[in-house]
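User: I need a structural model of Murein hydrolase activator EnvC from invertebrate metagenome for a docking pre-check later this week. Nothing fancy, just the predicted structure tokens so I can convert them on my end. Input:
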Amino acid sequence: MKGMFWLLLCCLSVSLNVPGATNDTADRKHQTEAQLTTVNTSIQRLKTLQQSINKKRSASEVTLQKLESNILQTQQDLDRINGQLSKGETELASLQQRQVKLLVRKKKDQGKIASSLRSMYLMNGNSRVQMLLNHEDPDELLRYQVYLEYIQAAQMKEVRSYEHMLNELDTLRHDKTQKVAQLKFGYEALLQRQNKLVQQQKERQKIVKQLEKDRIHSTQQLNSLAQQQKSLQALLARLNSAVSGQPMRKLRGKLPWPLKGDLLFRFNEYGKSSRLKHQGILIRAAEGSAVRAVYGGKVIFADWLRGYGLLAIVDHGNNYLTLYAHNQSILKREGGTVKSGEIIAKSGNTGGMSTPGLYFELRHKGIPENPLSWLVSR
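Assistant: Understood. Predicted structure tokens for Murein hydrolase activator EnvC:
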């Protein structure tokens, strides 16, 4: 039954006339595909690296901004404390000058008091007889003595006032000295913090600068790889065109696989529940995986067929046919042309398959051939 079906297909198939190509075109195509895969991988890796660099750079810039804000605030605090220190030291100097002046005045008044005391002592030492002999008026002497006592009392009061003011000044000076010492301590602590922040700022600026260099370097690499990618894609397009035009008979062992997956059955192996040998290979794959044409040609069948499920058959000319069975869906219509590597279907398990995958056959003049001898080794 299958033999009659394939004989009918061979009779109905239309040969495709395509230009020839050199024997090494397919090899060059595979090399170009490998190079393009490497370039694409490198581009993706660099893009991931750039994302990481940009993320680190953004985080470093945020940290740098915080550091600079802290440096500004610390500098403002330093300026404020420095102003307070200058004011405190000026006040201390003023207090010291006042103390010196008060001490001078106190010493001067103490001298006056001593002089008054000597005068009173001498006056009290004169006898009444001496005053009479000298014809001195006792009342006048008494008034003079009272005057001296008054002056002495006033001077003593002023001296005590000096002592009180000196004590107050000493207390103020002590408090001011402590305050200045505290300000100096705070200033030194802030200065150390400022120096530490400035050092962190320099280190962060260095990191940001290096990240910017890395970003520029990776961008240059990306641009270079993008040019390589573009060139390789253009070359691959030309090679695909050349390979599609190369006679299929010259591509034995060089055709791409229609699907990535593990082999469940090989050519001429018996089925598990059948005594018939497989006339193709069965490739296991997840449902919906891309099924690609192994060579350019024309779709001559795209429909459901008993035992094959959704089936696509491509005529490659010169009596070469390939069959793609058990698909989930077929993306090409009958009569449409396909290129080598173009997606023509999605893998599935239609037609009674227990495991999703692709059944693939290759025939020449209606006779099945081992697909593994045509597909590139892997």
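Before docking, keep this in mind: Strands lie at 262-265, 281-284, 290-292, 297-305, 309-317, 320-330, 337-338, 343-347, 357-364, 367-369.
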